[in-house]
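Per reviewer request, we include the raw input and output of the structure prediction for the construct analysed in the revised manuscript.
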Amino acid sequence: MIVALHPDNEDQRLRSLRNINILDSLPEEKYDHITDLATFICGTKSSAISLVDENRQWFKSIKGMATCETPREVSFCSHAILNPDELMEVQDAKLDERFKSNPLVTDLENPIRYYAGIPIKNSDGMVLGTLCVLDDKPNSLSHDQKIALRNLGRQVQELVKLHVVNEDLRVSRNQLKKHNGLLEDFAGTVSHDMKMPLANLIVTSDILNKKYHGLVDDDGRKYLKYLKSSSLSLSDYITNILAHYESSAYEVDDREDFDLNELLENIIELINIKHHCDIHLPEQNYQLHCNRVALEQIFLNLIGNSIKYNDKEETVIDFGVTETEDLYKFSITDNGRGIPKENLLHIFNLFNTVGEYDRYGNQGHGIGLSTVKQLVENLGGSIHAESVLGESTTFYFSVSK
């Protein structure tokens, strides 16, 4: 037996093999389909997708042989990878000086007499292993069979490239998840730390306005009023940021039974509506089984927006609800100013504002609808809006049962 030499670029080749993170991975049908085809097309007993590691060859897929790896020193593939662009065929291993005393050839129960392998490369041209076919008797592939084996080898290379892309995406996703977690922690900490100084500022501005109201001129009173309104706006902004990042904690499995109309009535009382508003609850009441706290946050935001961004003397809000086997489906329609069509795709983006002021003269922060979307998706649903400018807006959303 002649043990194959190592390729000149062996260190770089091994780094490439290990960087793709495929060694010792679980079997996958997409690779098994190729070995099935190779066996069928070449008319052999066995086939394998072999990756040649430092001291072993490991099989990503193998058909017709009951093993997952063999020592590198006895592998046929360690010879095949020495000629990266050539198909290596051994028609009778017993007649080949390299293999005639190989224990895989001399094995009495399952000998290897025939081998044909095409090297498999990564996108940088590094040889990782082979797609090979094997038999327990001498054989010879036809011209067409060799072409087919080469083509199947190219398919393996494409699968490996796709595997690398998926691995890169997985790593990037995990890193992004980690960074987002750190960002959420930072935003939460900063927001909490800012709330107390802001509360003190608001109280101080009230005290100054009451105690020194008659001692300051109109400009002074205007500045005090501006100080308080700005502080309140910033406090509202921080509250919305906290609500947004805390919304990720709501999960679909935190379910309870509750009455929908009772929930809506409690929300309407909580909002403390300051002008005439006609709200039509669903005619048919529903007993729901889902995350009550998250649904309350969703409706609180949407109802609040319907009232704040309404330019009519009387605000009208209609609720709709249906259900399927898996979902509760809700709609909330108002008779407000509407949303321009070009803005509908962006209204759920965090910090996205359209420059609109509410009926009280305050500009939105672009947090509320992003929070709503995150809550809805956490509950296994989806949300979108339809609007007629100057007439109405309807938000449709669903949550899983």
